[in-house]
Design goal:
Chain lengths: 929, 929
């Protein structure tokens, strides 16, 4: 493929599109860019497209290297130009029937507004006069000329467009004065309204051209180029150079577009929608991009240029009569409309997708200027895909592959109405999707109280802790000043399905005063102003794939709604995917939500979350401050029936589906009292003094709790804790099974193991308790014993760990933390700088770092299955719900991914796409370059 | 080999030693155990050894599996027994000339006192009477019998020896009463002194035998076995079972002896040193095991049993006239002595090593009962090895291989006199080797003040911080209550060569009261008593390979002393080793110490240590609290000349040897003020308020600083810091080079990189500064640019990192922390439990975990050199000074190891041994089982 394109390059840098046939077609996207390839394709379909030619992306790369247009390119351009002249019967750079051209960039991927464009190229004093005469429209001709001068000067010559805008304002002021308007009362915006562009006479525009040329000459100490060829070379060069301007580079970084792609450059004969009243311009979608409904949808303006439709200086009309009434193109220019309908239907059938098309009507003749696959909402994306299957346009496989999984979020959560007016207060990390609106509460108790009064609440905290869970549940949304995408607030919010923004660092919270002070920054990084919000004030949180935003007050919202198209698509997805989808759920209620979304088991039940409940924390604390094993066992005995009841509910809910239960993982100090009241309560419960408890609590402090006394390490020092948990699990399982509620196969999982010896020791505990419970209960049931793989050493020694573990579940959150030496709680200080400078393409806590952490996961899979062929492998980190990561997991052969309940549909779709893509890859071999 | 031994087993479970030739020899250590193999070897050398036979270690393993003596073994034993009887002309189990035997364990590695032994086996009422008659010594006969009954009952029958001791005490009491002694005034110890064993008459012993037999019968409800054959099978079984007793298992765990080795069982004809006045027993070393001097060294007792020499109930005499005067064996039994000298010389020549031998003289005839390579001090080990080369006994290679590298510590550091009386207060981790004595100071300032008064000081802290360095330097030793082997105190102490004990958790420090309260624990874990020490109290710290101990008061010490033997050995080592040895040193003074010890460069200069100096910390703080880059640069400009001067001194000291300089690594908050005075000073320096500074300081707090904003991450957010450091390095290097002090090749090292992009960005900084400095200075010099590999991801992506890095230095401390998810500061809570339960064989921060972390290092080496063949690879973690780790590093092809100055000789020797052993392995192929 690479060789092939090289060969092409040798022969051909310039691809013509026009009669009788274009040189290229839509398959040559990477060489001609999206725009160029589609112009060629439309030409070949016989659709009226102004002729032109495309300089390939490889010319761009050579231009970048050589810092000039390669030698042999100019001759090819001259040739193509001559062909254009012949085809349209006009002459470039000549006053008789002058040919004007547009010069536009067009890369392989759409990069809207990032690179440069020049219109109306080919004008000078002589030609503009001829054009005025030919069109009998001097206003049009000079307007075109002054726009060209401004655009060209700005893009090619480096004379900022501000100078020309200032001059235009000055001219407006003169015209207004002439009209007797009170100038001093008009601000610039009002001035523009009072004297719009079309209120300027041809003479005014001629004067503006004069002044603009003078500006250029004064700035550059040489005149504006009058030779159209010179203009063309300059414009082509500028387009290629714009591939490497700062905003294009930044955009590529954000969207992971390789620098090596380069942009193509399209030179095309100009057609004008602003030439006359029977001229027009417009933009359409072949179906409704918001809903996906099969309804032609577009806007147009008579006697206008394309930019007028987009810029919003004039309000465009709808194209269809149904939507636009008497102003519709369908009514005003019915023949052109019919032609447009014929063309869009042809294109949609040809491209087998919803398209976004741009057209211009010049003196009653319709031209297509662009066509591409149209952007769409998540909801539209689902509906389009499903309906196109029903229409026989695409296959079910294609439908499943067409919907970007993360876009399902829109259907699963409410969203702020994009059109509603809103005041942005601050941005933060998009931790829990959706939107939420409510009154601010600064403590969990207050949030619960307010919710009890029937208010909708947003819980606002510096960061949340397990103590806050009741408040989080009572709230509509959660907002924290600190923390990252896998902080406590973020993880819990996703599990309980709340909208959540974390790491909103512009916000400073004063718990005593119950205020949140939000700093609003100017572009130079200084605080421009501060907004102080107090308890009860209303805010709206919005989290989508662009990020998390906090708005002032109540912003109108759209509701979550899945619907029939969604259900149908998901069913197709299920038939294609290889991997199972489980959920991370700690309670029967969470498990129910996940099962409704199609979860096929629980991949991670975090038992510690059961301990954070209000009635259990005190017992946990008693256990933790106990001095001896005997004292600990007393406290554990009180926890046993509570935990057993949880498991009974969970096993009943899951009705025979697999349930992986992770034994206690967090460091014990997470459970310790955080305020005086809690210390006092604990003192009462234990009979110890508060001072003594504080000392014991201090003793548990750790420098790096993430790397401390937690996970299986707790079981090595306090085996009685795991013993109690295993008993609770197995007693519950036996009970449920005896009730005849189906076969229960608990999967008991050890966290944070680094060595097989830890697994040996814990297995002995499990086997001992199992023997006891089975004897007591008179039942024997199967269970699996396995481990998390969440430390690099565990992955490296997976062959050894697999001797004891019957399954592995990859804890990719912690594996990322340890693999990178990166605390998810602290990374907020520098990870933004890492993303900005392109060191990391994506937050490694959101999308798996396949090169590093992924290599560990893959290694562990191979080593584990070498010891224990066919062993069950899954992932239960946050990455289990991330589409890109799911592709990777499918590729290395995991049996399942497990994610928070609301990500289950996304995981189902991603898994299906992964299976389909890898099948496609196998079919097509390794042809990809 | 395995097959071969199996075959042997099929044929032979029992190896006879005795006339005319033993079945085995000393090469059959693994089959016959050390004791059995050497008995066979001595027999073959014609040395008088009482005959006997050895049941192999494989019988032990089969015994363990089958829980009984394998069928075909008994017949072989009977056969061997018959041969013994014939050889000594006595009869086992018969009253006429009865043969008594000993039954002893003997494993491949010495496990002193861990397993069971039975002496005098083959006695019953009939035989003891015959023996009394034959020897005409009823006291001897009944003493032997009562000892046998007690030993056999305890070991084989499970009747505790305490019962018999109690009975003996009772008998003593009766005898004392008979003698008219005032019993009630005697405690048990005094009773033993008043009525020693030989004060008991034959009749007394006869009575004791009677009572002992009654005890057994009462306990077991059946009589003591009177059939000598039955006794023999019982004893052999008990010896094999003792391989799996708790203390043997614990010992094997501690000493990394595989369970699969098993023990052999030796049955040997008894000879008696307590039969008469011309009988005797003794233990000798062929040279002095304390100094290594070539001087026969031993102790003996006439008319005594072997255990009497060891037990200390009677004070033994020296064997040589030179040492023992008139009591010497040389004087008292000169013929036997001469024979002994002939034998030890023969043995030393034969074994080519210093030996430990046990002998018994029975009625004037000398027998050798044991010979093995003798234990020795570190100093002796060096001297012996060197002198044996000079004597032509061994090669230089053998000499180098014979000295355990960690034993060099004895020569490099002072040590407490092992014979001095001392009161142990507490134990801790052996962080910095040697011994130190001084007055306690609880703050660095106080330590410095006391040292200024000429006192020797021990700095006592909960843990140390960079603020304490001046106090650490002023002190003789450092003692902390917290922290692990790589905590701040431990690392700094090793660098500055101070004796240091960390993690002394029994100690509770009250800074306000200036006291240290030490809890002394009883065996059941309860606090038995507490000792309160106050400022100025004297303590002694002792750190050796057994651990760290704190003693009360001033304990006499021996000085550090290397000497000529050491120098000679080290020179030989240097000729053999492949790897280079560098040192971790931050200052010219430390580098000097290391060079004197033979360091060949600096592998790690931690630039942050330069910032902790008193004159620099304030400037660092100014930099850290700065709000803008411009403000930071002002503070950095003040640091530049100070840091440059440090590098000038370092480069001059190293005189052209390579110097690897790590740019700033620790999180900035480590430099922030810790007390009010420091805040006030900083407020004055910066013009900010204390409140503001505290807020800025709080903002820098991290949950997991180990995984936080540090290392290269600082350079991504504040590139100006590294820019200043690079400038300081290169300006210093240019300056020194211009002075003609030799070619300086600095190696600039980036810490904590996880991605090649980080290295790209920093390389740009380095190259820019280098170009500037070279232009300014008019010199151009070579430098290397490289990175630490201290994160799993860096190791996994080493091929990619090697694109930018010209060298790798493995930071195995952090690699262990992240690979295991184990904070070195927090591991103290559970790592002891991990070692106790055998999960980790050795603290992974002391000895590299080759299976996990080592796999990462090896992977990174392979990947790095794949990208950049021959790239320089080294290690600068604490493991660089650990012998076992050095073997591993040699095996995977590192170019050098770097360690703290005082470990340099140990590293040199270890590296030489590694080279020699791997050469040996290559020669011998893969014959090892």
């Amino acid at each position: 493929m690479l060789v092939l394109t090289k060969e092409k390059t040798m022969n051909k840098d310039c691809y013509y599109f026009g009669a009788p046939q274009a040189d290229g077609d839509s398959s040559m996207n990477s060489l001609l860019g999206g725009k160029g390839a589609n112009l060629a394709e439309m030409t070949n379909l016989g659709i009226p497209v102004p002729p032109g030619f495309t300089l390939t992306t490889e010319v761009c790369l050579r231009y970048t290297q050589e810092a000039k247009l390669p030698d042999n390119v100019k001759a090819q351009v001259e040739q193509a130009l001559a062909r254009m002249e012949k085809e349209v019967g006009r002459n470039f750079g000549k006053p008789s029937a002058p040919l004007l051209v547009s010069v536009r960039s067009g890369a392989r991927a759409s990069m809207p507004g990032m690179m440069d464009t020049i219109l109306n190229l080919g004008l000078n004093e002589e030609i503009v006069q001829a054009l005025a005469k030919e069109t009998n429209n001097p206003h049009f001709a000079y307007d075109a000329y002054r726009r060209f001068i401004a655009m060209y000067s700005d893009v090619v010559l480096g004379v900022s467009k501000e100078h020309f805008e200032k001059e235009l304002d000055e001219l407006r002021r003169e015209v207004a004065k002439r009209k007797g308007l009170a100038l001093e009362k008009l601000n610039p915006e009002e001035l523009k309204q009072a004297v719009p562009d079309n209120a300027l006479s041809a003479e005014d525009l001629k004067e503006l051209v004069k002044r603009s040329l003078a500006i250029v000459e004064q700035k550059l100490q040489k005149p504006f180029p009058t030779d159209p060829k010179e203009q063309l070379w300059g414009a082509i060069g500028a387009v290629f150079e714009s591939w490497n301007n700062d905003r294009a580079i930044a955009y590529r970084r954000m969207n992971q577009i390789p620098d090596e792609w380069g942009t193509a450059c399209n030179v095309q004969a100009m057609v004008f929608g602003n030439l006359s009243d029977d001229s027009a311009t417009g933009v359409c979608f072949t179906r409704d991009p918001r809903t996906g409904e099969r309804e032609f949808f577009g806007e147009w303006l008579p006697n206008a240029q394309g930019e007028d439709v987009v810029a919003g200086t004039r309000t465009p009309f709808n194209v269809t009569k149904k939507a636009g009434g008497d102003d519709a193109l369908e009514v005003k220019m019915s023949e052109c409309y019919e032609e447009l309908v014929r063309i869009y239907q042809l294109l949609e059938k040809h491209y087998r997708d919803m398209l976004d098309i741009e057209f211009t009507i010049q003196r009653g003749k319709l031209y297509l200027l662009q066509c591409r696959v149209g952007g769409r909402s998540g909801r539209a994306s689902v509906r389009l895909a499903v309906e196109m299957v029903h229409e026989g346009l695409i296959s079910k496989q294609e439908a499943v592959l067409r919907v970007p999984p993360h876009k399902l979020d829109e259907l699963l959560h409410p969203a702020v109405n994009p059109d509603a007016p809103k005041t942005l207060l601050a941005k933060g990390l998009p931790a829990g999707p959706g939107a939420a609106c409510g009154h601010m509460a600064f403590s969990a108790d207050e949030a619960a109280r307010m919710a009890g009064e029937g208010k909708s609440v947003i819980l606002v905290r510096r960061e949340t802790s397990p103590e806050d869970i009741h408040g989080m549940k009572a709230s509509n949304g959660i907002l924290t000043a600190r923390g990252g995408m896998t902080s406590h607030a973020a993880v819990v919010a996703r599990v309980i399905g709340k909208c959540c923004i974390v790491g909103c660092s512009a916000m400073d919270i004063d718990y005593a005063k119950k205020t949140a002070t939000i700093s609003i920054y100017a572009k130079d990084g200084h605080v421009e102003k501060t907004v102080v919000l107090k308890e009860g004030d209303e805010v709206t949180l919005s989290v989508d794939d662009k990020g998390g935003a906090v708005y002032l007050g109540k912003v109108p919202m759209t509701n979550a709604q899945t619907g029939a198209h969604f259900e149908e698509l998901m069913q197709w997805a299920d038939t294609f995917r290889r991997m199972r989808i489980r959920t991370n759920a700690d309670k029967a209620s969470e498990a129910k939500v996940a099962m409704d979304f199609g979860a096929e088991g629980i991949g991670l039940c975090r038992t510690e979350h059961m301990f954070f409940e209000e009635d259990r924390v005190p017992l946990m604390r008693e256990m933790i401050v106990a001095d001896t094993q005997a004292e600990r066992e007393v406290a554990l005995a009180k926890l046993l029936p509570l935990q057993r009841a949880d498991f009974v509910a969970l096993f009943k809910q899951m009705a025979g589906l697999p349930v992986t239960i992770r034994l206690l993982d967090p460091p014990l100090h997470e459970f310790l009292p955080t305020d005086e009241a809690q210390f006092a309560a604990l003192a009462k419960a234990t009979g110890l003094t508060v001072a003594d408890l504080k000392r014991r609590s201090d003793e548990r402090h750790e420098q790096n709790p993430m790397l401390g006394h937690r996970g299986v390490r707790l079981a090595i020092t306090y085996p009685e804790i795991y013993a109690m948990q295993v008993r609770a699990i197995l007693e519950a399982a036996c009970g449920v099974q005896k009730e005849g509620k189906g076969k229960v196969v608990p999967e008991i999982m050890i966290p944070l193991a680094a060595t097989v010896q830890e697994l040996e020791i814990c297995k002995k505990i499990v086997e001992k308790i199992a023997a006891e419970v089975f004897a007591e209960q008179g039942v024997k049931l199967d269970y699996l014993y396995g481990t998390m793989i969440e430390l690099p050493r565990a992955a490296l020694c997976a062959d050894s760990l697999a001797k004891e573990a019957e399954f592995f579940s990859f804890g990719t959150n912690d594996l990322t933390q340890t693999g990178w030496g990166l605390s998810r709680d602290d990374a907020g200080r520098f990870l933004p700088a890492y993303e900005a400078s392109g060191i990391v393409k994506k937050d490694p806590f959101q999308t798996l770092d396949t090169e590093g952490v992924g290599a560990l996961v893959e290694m562990a899979c191979l080593k584990g299955r070498k010891t224990r062929p066919g062993m069950k492998l899954g992932v239960c980190g946050e990455h289990g719900g991330d589409p890109a990561s799911i592709f990777f997991f499918d590729g290395i052969g995991l049996d399942y991914v497990s994610c928070s309940p609301f990500r289950v549909p996304i995981a189902r779709l991603s898994a299906a796409q992964a299976t389909l893509k890898s099948a496609g890859k196998q079919r097509s071999g390794s042809s990809e370059v």
